[in-house]
Design brief:
- With about 350 residues, the chain is of the alpha/beta class.
- The chain is about 45% helix and about 20% strand.
- α2 packs across α13.
- Bound molecules: nicotinamide-adenine-dinucleotide (NAD).
């Protein structure tokens, strides 16, 4: 059966969905507000080309729910929401700018019911543009755009520390082998932090130029994309795309820990159990990759001191310490524990 936009919305457990169509560019706009128990719905704006409008809506609904758990997982006062601009293809700059302006007008009309930041396909500069019109962009400081990547990298770094401590009894990175898959906004600052901490670095990316540059600058060892899952490692850090943890890869993995920034790392929820059964410690993605969201949330609430922002992000280490301990006590997977903790937090606040 082919599902329609209507079917998707009917079967969703979120609060509301704004659906609009941008005539000049042929773009479907979906703003999904999943749960506002903790505060105003806040999440990124993704601009992407999908096979169908339904696929774009589906992404918005799934990502908005993910934001509810991300905010609850780190105990921040924001609700879960996400926007998707399902563009028909790559737009020329003028058309793209026009679309963003009209999208910003729609956000303005929502009068703060949804506030947004960068996501796949949008840039910090886009947020300045959207913020100037709508007044509801996060991560823009004094008219300057901030990059969430380094904050997300810090969160992943301290999350890895929690995982090392739990798994090996020592949080030291000295000589620990770590493979970073994806050398982008998060992967590159993460490489720098790991190098400074003394880790033995392996790097992989489909972009050969960025791999060559990173190898030259850091002395890391390059790994071909096809062999990432067969490498004996202490930590595998997925920082590129989702669903890299699936029945095929999990049976091949030879790492002790999976800890990285990518969203939706598990292809399906049962993969968490498969990792647990193989004795591989998995740091739930929406907790370990919340650093950018945490920092931007604090910036939005008026925090300006860089050290305070970093301290807020570093609390991800405590959250993961607690999740790993509870998983150990209950002989459960960290994913299930994280989900239950977030739900508990939401219930307590409602
Ligand atoms: P990015 O686009 O800046 O970088 C991604 C990198 O991964 C690129 O260098 C790309 O060439 C590479 N890549 C793509 N497909 C690959 C593959 N199959 N194998 C190896 N490399 C591949 O993205 P980013 O902002 O660094 O984000 C990385 C991941 O973390 C994404 O899944 C993103 O959703 C997630 N995330 C990012 C942030 C953030 O603050 N940027 C926050 C939370 C989650």
């Amino acid at each position: 059966m082919i599902e329609t936009l209507q079917d998707k919305i009917i079967s969703w457990d979120g609060e509301s969905v704004v659906v609009a169509y941008d005539q000049p560019t042929g773009t479907w706009i979906f703003i999904a507000i999943h749960n506002t128990t903790l505060g105003v719905a806040s999440g990124g704006t993704r601009m992407k080309s999908y096979n169908s409008p339904v696929a774009g809506l589906e992404d918005a609904l799934r990502l908005a729910e993910g934001m509810t758990y991300k905010w609850a997982g780190v105990g921040m006062s924001f609700g879960g929401g996400k926007a998707v601009l399902a563009v028909p293809g790559r737009l020329p700059t003028r058309e793209r700018d026009g679309l963003l302006d009209r999208y910003a007008e729609r956000l303005k009309s929502l009068k703060g019911a949804f506030q947004t930041g960068v996501d796949m396909g949008t840039t910090p500069e886009d947020m300045i543009r959207i913020g100037a019109i709508s007044g509801h962009a996060v991560g823009v400081r004094e008219g300057q755009s901030a990059d969430p990547g380094p904050y997300t990298a810090l969160g992943v770094f301290v999350g890895m520390r929690a995982a090392l401590k739990y798994h090996f009894g020592s949080e030291s990175f000295e000589s620990r082998s770590v493979l970073i898959q994806g050398l982008g906004d998060v992967g590159l600052p993460l490489v720098d932090r790991l190098k400074a901490a003394g880790a033995h670095l392996f790097v992989s990316d489909i972009d050969e130029a960025v791999v060559a540059k990173t190898v030259e600058e850091t002395g890391a060892t390059a790994v071909a994309p096809g062999t990432v899952y067969d490498m004996p490692l202490d930590i595998y850090a997925p920082c590129a795309v989702g669903a890299t943890l699936n029945p095929d890869t999990i049976s091949r993995l030879k790492c002790a820990i999976v800890a990285g920034s990518a969203n939706n790392q598990l292809e399906s929820f049962s993969d968490a159990k498969a990792l647990q059964d193989r004795g591989i410690l998995y740091a739930p993605d929406y907790v370990i990759n919340a650093g950018g969201a945490v920092a931007f949330g604090h910036i939005h609430q008026g925090e300006r001191d860089e050290r305070q922002l970093e301290a807020a992000v570093e609390k991800i280490e405590t959250a993961l310490n607690d999740i790993f301990s509870e998983a150990d006590e209950l002989d459960d997977s960290p994913s299930r524990v994280a989900h239950r903790r977030a739900k508990r937090f939401l219930d307590e606040q409602s």
